[in-house]
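Input/output pair, single chain:
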Amino acid sequence: MTETPSPQAVRSPRVQPSVGAALVLYAGYLVLFYVTWVVNRVDYMTIGQTADSARLHYALPTLFGSAFLVVMLSVFGWWRITLFDHQRSGPAWAWLGPALMFGIAASSFLLMRRESATPALVLWCVLGGIGVGFGEEMITRGALLVGLRARHTEIHAWLMSTLLFSALHVPNALFGEPVLAMLGQLVMTFLFGSLLYAARRLSGTLLLPMFLHGFWDTSLFLPRATGSDPNLVAIAVYPLAIACAVAVVRRQRGLRLGAAAGRSMPGEVHQREQRQP
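Output:
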């Protein structure tokens, strides 16, 4: 465990972290996102196939949701606690997961049919990736994690925030995604979300998961929109995600990182990590 020093004069949040406050942000983001889909009459199976679809069905919903979060996080005073942890945790080898994720995403861009990537398509896919990276990470591994930490141990906070991350994708079935495909997506997003949680704990900041999530999503949408062949290597990230997430989560047993508990725990956590392989 590496402790990240924090200034004593940091201002307390205007709204104390709680599960209820976090769920308000989660629900608000969901409502804005899916209302935008309803208004724009999204067909899930065609999202991102054209520049207009990337704008209406991918970029705008995530950017509207992100704008809502920017306002509410400022009102709550939650920026610091959602973006930064007091401690970093996890074995050094677990960095292989985030590194592989970045490498696979980068290779997808290299293999893409760039002649089909119009400026408008690239712009809206990139903006959509930024919206997804900021919005979905801030609402799940940011606000929800902070709210859950106020009441639960870190393992429970990881589990519940990651399940709620998967649940973000349940309404896809109402917009044209086959139910079986949606159920498979829930499993994959749970593994994906667990790896992003591991990236937060390894780095001590939400900024890394935000970048990785946005970069990964853009590497899926843009090549698909240009008619490029799927990058089959991408499936390799999921087995490694399991290994990395388990290794990081094991070190969170009994840990509490809520505002009240976080200040007294580093020494205890350090001793516990020394006893673990």
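The radius of gyration is 19 Å. Residues 15-275 form one domain.
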